[in-house]
Amino acid sequence: MEGESGDGSDDCSEDAVVGNVNKFCVVPPGYNSQPRRGHLIFDACFESGNLGRVDYITEFEYDLFIRPDTCNPRFRVWFNFTVENVMVGQRVVFNIVNFSKTKSLYREGMSPLVKSTSRPRWQRVPPKNVYYYRCPDHRKNYVMSFAFCFDREDDVYQFGYCFPYTYTRLQSYLEAIEKKNLDYFNRELLCLTVQQRRLDLLTITAPENLDPDENQRVVFVTARVHPGETPASFVCQGWIDFLVSQHPIARVLRQHLVFKIVPMLNPDGVYLGNYRCSLMGFDLNRHWQDPSPWAHPTLQATKQLLMDLNGDEKVDLDFYIDIHAHSTLMNGFMYGNVYDEEDRFEQQMVFPRLLGNNAEDFSLANTNFNRDAVKAGTGRRFLGGALDDNCSCYTLEVSFFSYLTNSSTVPVPYTEEAYMKLGRNVARTFLDYYKLEHLINPKPTPGPQYPRGQRNSSGRGKDRERGRESRGSRATSSQQEVGSYAGSASGSSLEAMPVHFKMHHRDGKRR
Question: Low complexity compositional bias: what residue ranges (predicted)?
Answer without folding.
Answer: 473-493
